[in-house]
Amino acid sequence: MPRKDPFILQRPTGRPVRARDALVCVLVAVVALLVVKGQSIRGSGERMEPGVERTVVLAVGHPAGWVADRIGIGDDVERLTAALSPDDALGGEGGFNDTVPTTDSPAAGAPKGAVVPVTPDAFDPAALGGKPATLPKLGTLLVAGDSLADGLDVEMARRLADSGVRTVRDANLGTGISKSDLLDWGREAVSQVRKEKPDAVVFFLGANEGFPFDAADGTSIDCCGPRWAAEYATRARQMMQTFRRDGDARVYWLTLPLPRSEPRQEIARSVNAAILAAAQPYRAQVRMLDMTEVFTPGGRYRAAMDVKGRSTIVRKADGIHLNDAGATLAADIIIDRLNADFATLGPG
Amino acid sequence: MVFPTIQFAIFFPIVLALSWALMKRQLVWKPFILAASYVFYSAANPLFCLMLAGLTLANQATARLVHRTEDERRRRQIVATAVAIDLGTLGVFKYYGFFAEEVNAVLDTFGLGLPLPLAAIALPIGISFIVFQAISYTVDVHRRLIEPASTIDFALYLSFFPHLVAGPIVRAREFIPQLAKPRDPTKVAVGAGVFLIVVGLVKKVAIADFLAREIVDPVFGVPQAYSAPDVALAGYAYAVQIFCDFSGYTDIAIGLALLMGFVFPQNFDRPYRAQTFREFWRRWHMTLSRFLRDFLYIPLGGSRGGKLRTARNLMITMVLGGLWHGAAWGFVLWGTIHGLALVAEQVLRERARFTLPGWLRWAIVFHVVVLAWIPFRAPDLSLAGTFVSRLADWGPATLWTLPVVGIVVIVIGLQLVANKPLDVIRVRFESLHPAALGASMATVIVLVTATVSSQGVPPFIYFQF
User: Fold this and answer.
1) pTM, to two decimals
2) How far is A260 from chain B (nearest CA, A)?
3) Which of chain A's residues have a Cβ under 8 Å away from the Cβ of B437?
4) Using an 8 Å Cβ cutoff, are B2 and B460 in contact?
5) Which of A82, A178, A256, B409 is paired with A36 by a 20 to 30 Å CA distance?
6) Parallel, antiparallel, or unpaired: how do β-strands A140-145 and A166-171 relate?
């Protein structure tokens, strides 16, 4: 018989009822939630990475979404509770699906056989042996991305706080350029640039990529071949164009250190190739910071590396993200580039 | 699998229905719940199930062996082996990286190049809770407080999904007797269970995550960017956040268990109303306090053996209690502050010839507790120092909004008012018809999920411990 322990207060457990009543209670809650949140359940399932959990959630989400679509209460509830949402409402402009072809995107909109002229923006002066064009001062820095930027943003903010640089942190976990139903990074970039007018943008994203794109002809473009990389590059280029603010800002786009798992490495290689291609017309303002070679030289994953003469763990146990020491190392590299591009860090 | 997720909302109703359907057939029910608990745990990483199964078999084997052995010296050796296996497992997963980096740093200082291999080891969620429960079982068998359970009962005790990843730390003698016969299907505390689930959800999603997002994470991340008013509010807000996050998890765990017919011990009892540090530890994470008392403080000698020895035992217990949370100097400092406070309180109790008024005692205890949370939450000691130093730097209050200040004041204020008015609300809610309870639960879930950002619900703080 268990000894009564006076240290633990026995909570009154309320009026006991039958187990059947417990099931009635849970069933009422489940049915109500399926009717009201059916569309959300389906949407969440579609955003999950392939696997058993996604299959299970979609097995519930598809019929629940179908019912919710027909009843239509979900939209009303969504409207009524919208004020409680912590997410910023993004403007309608700049979305990936409403991209208008411009002369800045050579492949899009060009007549067949025509060559799109290369502009001076395609050249980093340093690469031509010239002096990099420095901007006078770094007042506002935007650090954005997915969970890869979470940690790096805090590190950057800490390092620059004393010099008076205003660091805006915009790490959106679980998001991706190929996963735009959760957050459309095209719109987010436009919204952040309008709101914050950053002098520089650090962008680190790619932990949740590999989702298929919808082609214009209605087909699906699966990761990670040239078509997928081309679509990814087009979207990344659209964001670079937004972030560089017609040449007034500098963009520091970090390539992905290779993750531990082989399937993820394939995605990361495709993402890295895509962003390198995307940056090509804007090399005067867009800096590609090579985290791949720093953290995974020769394309080999490693959890620890030599940092300032000491062997240090730089990756998290998930084999994807950088840990604090890794984020510090990445921040060192970024700050070196900021110092090269700006005459002063801070209000000046 | 995290409680407030779609995956769990699908998992639980199915398991609950099947659990009650199979309850009378214990030969089927026990393997079913065991399998469901392993499915729950495997959602984090299927490999973690191997560790859980390994600990189960190792502790069950040693518990049976110690029970069969008569020679006391031999019994002690066996139980020491079991505890070493448990703590060794905990040490490898939780402390190896910290230990290896610190040892390498010391060796480097002396120019000795014999570095320990570094590896980023994945921490199985809830490992500390699992290990503590395993130790409590084996030691209680050694102390002859309980008999060894059947292997499946012990496996269920360790893995039962409502308490698997963040407690409460249920003792074997509380849980295993509940497995002796089927739970009574005519006496299920549905109202109390639903009330706790609803309160837990609100605490976690609407309060803890809101405060983290709005003030705690920004200020603790870059304290040098904020001045005294924001830093002070962030300190109070973290005290509220960690209470709501952890007690929210516990409330949901206890509520789920009640729906399944099981009773867990209470883990929190309005800790911020404490007027002494001793009282605080009887109200905060009560099952950990009980564990540390029974398995560390008392075996060390407790309050027997004089004042100095009592003080030493208190300090050891609290510092190790801090270290239990993780391998970081911030946790050690947190435990040290609480240890020193307990020792100072004991000295004052014996020597002081005056008694402070209740409100002043409360204010002192509360503010020392809030202060101790700073190194606990700060990413490192240097930033904890920066955080404290910013308290002396007066400037604008940029993060003081009505919702943030209001929530902090209400949550702390509710801990100070008498229990009775709140109990009236609780009892009324618990007496609702089951269908009304279900509708209330759905309404609360819809409202709290509306406050979740598009990035989802962050993990409970105590998952990392």
Assistant:
1) 0.81
2) 11
3) 25, 28
4) yes
5) A178
6) parallel
